[in-house]
Structure formats: C-alpha cells, structure tokens
Amino acid sequence: MRTRPGTTGLRGTAGLRGWGGVGAMGLACALAGSLVLVLPDRSGGGAADREGPGTTVAAPARADADDCNDRSLRPSSKDGPTIERIRNREVKKLIVGVDQNSYRWGYRDPNKKGGELEGFDIDLAREIAEEIFGDRDAVVFRAIPTNERIPAIQSGQVDMVVRTMTVNCERLKDVDFSTGYFETGQQVLAPKKSGITGYDPSLTGKKICSASGSIAEDELKKKNYSADISTTVPNQLDCLVRLQLGEVDAVVTDSALAAGQAAQDPTVELKGEEPFTTEHYGVAMKKGSDDLVRRVNKVLDDYREDGGWQKSYDKWLKEGLGKSSGPPAPEYRD
User: CB-side exposure of 249: number of CA atoms within 13 Å?
Assistant: First the structure.
C-alpha cells in the first residue's frame, strides 16, 4: 500500500471510535436534516465583505492537473485591501464556511455540552483568525453544503471556505486557493459484507452516491464501471444516510472523510487498498484576494513549522488514519 504525505494507513479506520451502530444512523439522519442550514450570525454584522479585486492561482492538487498553473501565491505578512476591509467592517470577525457534519474535520460532538464546532478544519480556521485579528475566537462559522461552497465565496457570504475542499483546475476558474494543507484521494465506502472490492468492475450494476459538485461526482462521470451514478446529494454525509437506509450500494468520497464515516458506522468500510486519485485540500477564497491568499499561506507555513499542524492531526485524525509523515510540501509561484 502506498503511503501518502498526509497519512499512513488510510484503511486503518477500525481504531477510530465514533458514535457507532444503530445510534450512528439516527445521528446521521438528524445531521442530514441540518446540512443546508446557515448558522446564525452570532456577530450581528450580517454577510461578509462582498468586494474583491483580482488574480491568482493555487496549490498543488490532483495528479491530472498538470495542464494549469495550480501553484499558490508566495506567503506574505503584508496587509492589503481584502484584509483591510475584513478588519474595518462592522463585523470584527473572520467569516468562514465550514462543515458541521464531517466527523473529526468539522462537526458538533453530541456527547459534549455546548455543541461547539471542532475538528481539524476548525483548528485551521482559528489559526487564520488569530493571524488576522489576534484572537482565535474572532471567527464566525457558517455551515455550507458541499455544492454551495463556491457560491458562498462568490456572493460574499463568507470570507473563505475551510471545508475539506480539493484544489483543482476547474475550481481555480471561480475561486482562489491557498497552497495544499492535506493530501487525500477518492475511495469507495461500502458495507463490510458487500461484494464491492474498490473502484473497479465490482461496481458494475451497483447504485453509487456522491455529493453534487464534488470531485467524486466528476470522477464517476469519467469512469463508473457501468454503475448507476444518478444519486447525488447536496452534502456528502447524505450519502452515508442513503447507504445506511439501503438506497445505494456504495459511496465515493474523499478517503479522509470516508474514514470518519466508517468510524461512525462500524458496518461500513473503505474498499480498495488505496485512493484512486491524489488530491490536496486548500483554503478557498474570492478571486483576486491576493493579500488574503498570501496571508493564509503564511499561516500554513507557520502551522507546518511550529508543530501546530501535527498537533491538530494527532488530536483529530491519527487514531483513524494512522501515523502521519506530515503535511504536503507547499508549492508556490515564482
């Protein structure tokens, strides 16, 4: 099995204990009902800044993205027009689009009082808020469905999206990205007792679920082994619910997310020895927000070097994904 920079042993999900069994299904269904919810604006300041100038490119992403310049802007601590607008508006907080249902990435633990969002992506969002405002709590989280991530950025509803979002050439037409902060890839999730063995001919005639607007949906359109790929949902967790209800035979999604779902429901598992794509998650921002992109890349550089990335990985992801060899190396434009 090939080891990826972000993880070691992606199939090692059994040790990542979640909410489990029948309770997992009930929880997933309850969460699915809130997937399109936009969290209340606790700042009282309304939407994020809706302006933004323009140009840029982003982080290394999928292996097949060689036909575009997918490297991000070099880090900088200098302020610019985008950051100044964020700091000077009535809302003295960073407004970040996140997930609230991805176990260990961005989720609300029902077993903890208060229901605060937590996870690997939430930690990173707080790091960025601290860099811009000097306060890790100076952030408003907005729950954004998978298929609304780019529209939320373009409309100014959020300043950025930190939500297991893969950098690729198609998305670079619509938003700017930081350099990559986590490496993953697409993989099949199916019941343990299923005859499905991976992203291979065992999918023939099977009904597969993917999130609308996701890399999984794109990959299934390219090659689906004569499977039924008509089931798409607004948010990826909905696919787990469909799988638990027996409405689909398998799910295709990021292996890092699938590992968390396998932890929530011990009756399912990742299929195949390894992901069949290579992707990097990046922080997505509005086109032309060069100063903000550079500042986020500075945060990521510091996060890699000061041990913050590894500390967050060990806290949230190590139990399920195994020992990490560290974050992907950044690649910048000249």
Answer: 18
pLDDT reading at 164 higher than 60: yes
* Residues 227-237: tens digit of each pLDDT: 999 999 998 88
Each residue's pLDDT tens digit, 88-97 = 999 899 999 9
Q: How far apart are CA 8 and CA 321, in angstroms?
A: 6
Q: Are 258 and 189 in contact (CB under 8 A)?
A: yes
- If phi > 0 it is left, if psi is from -120 to 50 it is alpha, else beta; for residue 21 that is left
Longest Cα–Cα distance of the chain, Å, equals 57
Residue 331 is classified by DSSP as -
3-state secondary structure of 280: strand
User: Using a CB cutoff of 8 Å and minimum separation of 24, what contacts does 134-139 make?
Assistant: 138/92, 138/93, 138/94, 139/93, 139/94, 139/95, 139/96
Question: What's the CA gap between 283 and 285, in Å, rounded?
Answer: 7
Across 123-206, where does the E strand assignment appear?
139-143, 160-161, 175-177, 182-184, 186-191
- Helix 237-244 / helix 255-264 crossing angle, nearest 10 deg: 50
Question: What are 117's strand-pairing partners?
Answer: 108
